[in-house]
Amino acid sequence: xxxxxxxxxxxxxxxxxxxxxxxxxxxxxxxxxxxxxxxxxxxxxxxxxxxxxxxxxxxxxxxxxxxxxxxxxxxxxxxxxxxxxxxxxxxxxxxxxxxxxxxxxxxxxxxxxxxxxxxxxxxxxxxxxxxxxxxxxxxxxxxxxxxxxxxxxxxxxxxxxxxxxxxxxxxxxxxxxxxxxxxxxxxxxxxxxxxxxxxxxxxxxxxxxxxxxxxxxxxxxxxxxxxxxxxxxxxxxxxxxxxxxxxxxxxxxxxxxxxxxxxxxxxxxxxxxxxxxxxx
Length: 280
What we know:
Elements: E1 5-11, E2 21-27, H1 35-46, H2 50-67, H3 76-80, H4 85-101, H5 111-126, H6 134-140, H7 142-149, H8 158-169, H9 174-182, H10 184-189, H11 194-202, H12 209-226, H13 228-238, H14 244-250, H15 256-267
Antiparallel strand pairs: 1-2
Helix pairs in contact: 1-2, 2-4, 4-5, 6-7, 8-9, 9-12, 11-12, 12-13, 12-14
């Protein structure tokens, strides 16, 4: 199973390992990174032999392949509640595989598939706090929640889904907030930009760097997958409200001259007040 992740040594800023460096899996969901390249870089960064890393990689993939089809959904929470990052990853990836098998074109409007997709989404949201690292969020939110936003649901229509994402965005949980932003990757892949714009505005002045990066990443995808002019319109309206990291991520695909222009525009005249949004 081609799980596209890369190991990076990262300073932990929250949680019980705060202040220490730990190797975490970084999602590389939407590129063409090969397993061989991931293993090579992980080995180089960690000092762990390639054979051991390859075995761990294959183990996660084989577990997911072996059990995703046959495991009962009611058994997945045991994995999601594990204290081990890699076990929680397996649980989330099993949910991803189960959801994707129910989200094919043939099953889009199938009543039983709709019911089972909704069941997976309810479980994902119930255990959202167990996706307690940014890689766990990024590898699951777009393919479960983001895809669900674009499909028929027995739980409710657009207004229901928007209220649900608003609750995530207004949560005190960093991971739920990131889910509300990162899940919009899938909606843009399917041609809908409104979800991204809504939650980019809501999180524009978020205090945490993981959200600065998430918002900038989704805005970059907006320009890439929807329209660069739409991204420019957003920047024209909000560039002075943005954190510098958000702007850097958002303009990454622009040429150096335009990126400099937006950086200068951000600092010209000082920053504006953030846009108002009520969570009530």
